[in-house]
């Protein structure tokens, strides 16, 4: 145990040093003294550390199904070089291969496929929280979508849960929408009149970060073609429908840009080439503006967005299921070392920053 002399260090100096350390090291320093422990657990320090981490630490989380392990694996790349990594195993049963996932502020929100149970997980601190159930009784054959993000007005993290299910009493397919507030550990069920305006649309879970400035976005389709973008505002807990850009192609992905805007990557392809037109939503969320086109690229199946806070490098998946980093300046590809069993198998790519945000409710040993 360290001596009490550490308590006489200027707090500004201690704070400045700790802010630059990875979460694993900071947690060790909690044992130095009561003063240091109090500092590390202080909400202001947690917020400062998260802000610093977002500015200087570029990490990557890749969710994929590992055939040898027989389960979903999360590969965490520790820095911008994408060389050092560790494989993590989220707190879900081994047989859940394709769960809906959201990543925001260093926290991972996971919805189990069959049970519809939702958990929050902090990979850096190894804490997790199993949320209270929010599923109707006497229900079967559920499908669900989730969104996770921060309500900056109340400084509260929230989960939006949308479920379609069969009522076993009536045999009818029904819908259930609820908002979870982390501060109260409770759900609020939304009224039918708040969600009826998009009843004929089916939201689709994202495969990358899709919460930007307190709003979560999904692609929404009708008759297997995307026709709208559905947005949920965490501050006032209301939905919004956004029109599709003025194009005929109806397949795309919602991805964040390095400058903090949401973008829609609309895919165009022929038999061997793939290109993406990138459209950016304006601040009022009223219209889209075309930013640029990437491609056409040969033998590429899909794109997962930019890397390293600029638009020169793009994550892509090859037609053989390999995750690659494409350099738009040199036109070279770099193999990241992850390969799915076949193209379009379970593969999700998220930018990530370490966080000290407390999740509690348990710790993974």
Gyration radius, rounded = 21 Å
Name the overall outline.
globular
Strand composition percent: over 45%
SSE string, helix = H, strand = E?
HHHHEEEEEEEEEEEEEEEEEEEEEEEEE
Largest sheet: 5 strands, antiparallel
- Low-confidence segments, given as residue ranges, are none
> What count of helical segments does DSSP give?
4
Distance between the termini: 23 Å
Q: What would you call the structural class?
A: mainly beta
Give the helix proportion (percent range).
10-25%
Question: What's the count of strands?
Answer: 25
Q: Average pLDDT across residues?
A: 82
Q: Can you put this structure into words, describing what you see?
A:
With 365 residues, the protein is mainly beta. Helix content is 10%, strand content 46%. It is built from 4 helices and 25 strands. The strands form 6 sheets. Strands 12, 13, 14, 15 and 16 form a 5-stranded antiparallel beta sheet that branches. Strand 2 (71-77) and strand 3 (85-88) form a beta hairpin.
């Amino acid at each position: 145990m360290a001596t009490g002399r550490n308590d006489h260090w200027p707090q500004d100096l201690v704070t400045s040093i700790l802010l630059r350390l990875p979460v694993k090291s900071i947690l060790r320093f909690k044992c130095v003294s009561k003063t240091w422990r109090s500092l590390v657990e202080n909400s202001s320090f947690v917020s400062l550390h998260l802000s610093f981490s977002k500015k200087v630490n570029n990490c990557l989380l890749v969710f994929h199904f590992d055939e040898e392990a027989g389960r979903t694996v999360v590969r965490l790349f520790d820095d911008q070089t994408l060389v050092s990594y560790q494989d993590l195993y989220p707190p879900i049963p081994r047989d859940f291969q394709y769960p809906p996932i959201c990543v925001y502020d260093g926290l991972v929100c996971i919805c189990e496929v069959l049970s519809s149970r939702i958990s929050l997980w902090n990979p850096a601190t190894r804490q997790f929280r199993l949320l209270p159930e929010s599923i109707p009784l006497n229900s079967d054959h559920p499908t669900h979508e989730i969104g996770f993000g921060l309500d900056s007005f109340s400084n509260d993290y929230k989960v939006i849960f949308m479920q379609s299910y069969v009522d076993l009493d009536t045999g009818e397919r029904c819908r259930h929408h609820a908002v979870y507030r982390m501060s109260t550990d409770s759900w609020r069920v939304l009224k039918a009149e708040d969600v009826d305006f998009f009843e004929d649309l089916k939201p689709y879970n994202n495969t990358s970060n899709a919460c930007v400035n307190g709003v979560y976005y999904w692609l929404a389709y009708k008759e297997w073609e995307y026709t709208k973008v559905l947005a949920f505002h965490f501050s006032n807990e209301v939905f919004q429908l956004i029109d599709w850009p003025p194009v005929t192609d109806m397949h795309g992905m919602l991805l964040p840009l390095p400058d903090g805007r949401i973008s829609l990557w609309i895919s165009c392809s022929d038999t061997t080439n793939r290109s993406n037109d990138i459209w950016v939503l304006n601040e009022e969320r009223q219209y889209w503006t075309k930013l640029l086109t990437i491609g056409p690229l040969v033998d590429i199946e899909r794109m997962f967005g930019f890397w390293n806070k600029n638009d020169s490098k793009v994550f892509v998946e090859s037609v053989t299921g390999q995750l690659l980093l494409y350099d738009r300046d040199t036109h070279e590809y770099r193999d990241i070392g992850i390969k799915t069993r076949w193209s379009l198998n379970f593969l999700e790519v998220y930018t990530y920053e370490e966080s000290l945000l407390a999740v509690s409710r348990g710790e993974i040993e």
